[in-house]
Write a structure and sequence with these properties.
mainly alpha, 71% helix, globular
Amino acid sequence: MLSQADLSLEVPRLAAALPPFPRVVQQMLELLRDDDLSIETLARVARNDAVIAGQILSVANHVRRLRLQADLSDPFAAASLIGLNRVRQIVVGAGMNRFVQAAAGSTPFFYAHSLAVAIVAQELAALHDLSLEDAYIAGILHDIGQLCFHVLDPEAYRAVAEQAAVDGRLIEHERAAFGYDHCLIGCLLAEHWNLPEGVLRAIATHHDDDAPESRLQAVVMIAEVLTRALDLPESPNNRVIRINPLACELLEIDFSSPTMLDCLGRCRARYRHAFRLPG
């Protein structure tokens, strides 16, 4: 069992055991700090990644086909058509999805759950004028510490997961087995990758019952619970034991309001589209 001080020293090795953190996402986060960020700059980043360039072209050409216009083949022209915000979301989303899917390896539920939380967090963030990029990154990385436990001691963590599936007390079992939980190790990894402070804190606190310090923290706390409530992805282990009332209060959430019901509908639709699910 490592102490927290030893864990901090162990983080670079754990990070090295995962796929490389996407350079395109790091470039995007650096660019977002620039008030003069332009479509041309983003398109230049996208041109270096065939998957991202392809997604930008796909979204733009969908719009053009609705207008009975010919397809585009230039990412800059496509990016100009769909706009700065949409391009930012595509770059961050594509980079993070690829990273987490590769890191999850043979654990498809982990990737599906992480993607679901990212989608719900982003939809909640959109209702509260928060950074959609930060919400997506915090959501998709919120459980990344669990993968590190698989690196440290896969047998011990398998036992922890089995216990938690029975009683829902994952954090308590992690701390008993390792001395710390996946929230802490995930936060240290995010710090190692130089992610924004708000993302670090959201990862660190997503299971807390205390009052969130920011709306981003509240968004990720609630997104984690809503994915279970919506059964995204489907699992017999999905259960809602509690939801942080202070997070709900901070975001002024009324689950029966038309705005919130529309938000939940978008979450379901986006998740199904992400996996090309029927219905």
